[in-house]
C-alpha cells in the first residue's frame, strides 16, 4: 500500500499513475486542507462545509467516484459499504461543476442515511460539526 501525500505539485500525477496501473485510490471525504474548496450544504438541517477535493480529482482524471463507508460494529468487526457515487469518466470540462454538484448532493444524502443507520459512528467528523 502506497500513500500519496496530497497538496504537492506532483500529487495528481502520482494519483493518475496509480490509477493507470489499476490501483484503487481512496481519499478521505470529511477533511479539508487549508485553502481547499468546500461548498455549503444543508445536512440534518444545518449548513456544513463539504470538501469538493475528492470529486474534483475524480472529474479531472475522468474516473468514477465511489462512496466507501465502514460502520464500526464493535470488537474487530466493520460493516463495509461501497456505492457508486458519480460517473465522472464521461464528464468533460464544461460539465464538471454540474456533475460535481450532483455528486455532492448524492454524497450528503447518503451520509445522512448512514448517520441515521449508525449514529454513534460519526463522532470524528472534524469540520462538519463546527
Features:
130 residues, alpha+beta, two-stranded antiparallel sheet, two-stranded antiparallel ribbon, 3 helices, globular
Tell me briefly what this model is:
This protein is α+β, with helices and mostly antiparallel strands and 130 residues long.
Largest sheet entry: 2 strands, antiparallel
| Overall mean confidence score, pLDDT | 86
The outline comes out as globular
Radius of gyration: 15 Å
What is the count of β-strands?
Answer: 4
Spell the H/E element sequence. HEEHEEH
- Provide the domain count: 1
Spans where pLDDT lies below 50 across 5 or more residues: none
What is the beta-strand fraction? 15-25%
State the separation between the terminal residues, measured CA to CA: 33 Å
Which helices and strands appear, and what pairs or packs with what?
Blueprint: H1 11-20, E1 38-43, E2 46-51, H2 53-60, E3 65-74, E4 77-86, H3 96-117
Antiparallel strand pairs: 1-2, 3-4
Question: What can you see in these coordinates?
Answer:
By secondary structure, the protein is an alpha+beta fold. It has one domain (29-121). Helices cover 31% and strands 25% of the residues. It is built from three helices and four strands. It has helices at 11-20, 53-60, 96-117; strands spanning 38-43, 46-51, 65-74, 77-86. The strands form two sheets. Strands 1-2 form a two-stranded antiparallel sheet. Strands 3-4 form a two-stranded antiparallel ribbon. A hairpin with a 2-residue loop joins β1 (38-43) and β2. α2 packs across α3. The longest helix is centred in the C-terminal third of the chain and has 22 residues, at 96-117. It is globular and about 35 Å long. The mean pLDDT is 86.
Amino acid at each position: 500500500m502506497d500513500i500519496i501525500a496530497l497538496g504537492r505539485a506532483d500529487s495528481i500525477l502520482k494519483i493518475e499513475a496509480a490509477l493507470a496501473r489499476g490501483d484503487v485510490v481512496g481519499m478521505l471525504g470529511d477533511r479539508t486542507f487549508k485553502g481547499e474548496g468546500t461548498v455549503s450544504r444543508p445536512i440534518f438541517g444545518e449548513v456544513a462545509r463539504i470538501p469538493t477535493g475528492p470529486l474534483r480529482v475524480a472529474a479531472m482524471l475522468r474516473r468514477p467516484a465511489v462512496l466507501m463507508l465502514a460502520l464500526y460494529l464493535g470488537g474487530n468487526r466493520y460493516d463495509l459499504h461501497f456505492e457508486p457515487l458519480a460517473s465522472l469518466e464521461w464528464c468533460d470540462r464544461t460539465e464538471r461543476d454540474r456533475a460535481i454538484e450532483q455528486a455532492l448532493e448524492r454524497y450528503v444524502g447518503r451520509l445522512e442515511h448512514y448517520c441515521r443507520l449508525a449514529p454513534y459512528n460519526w463522532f470524528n467528523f472534524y469540520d462538519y460539526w463546527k
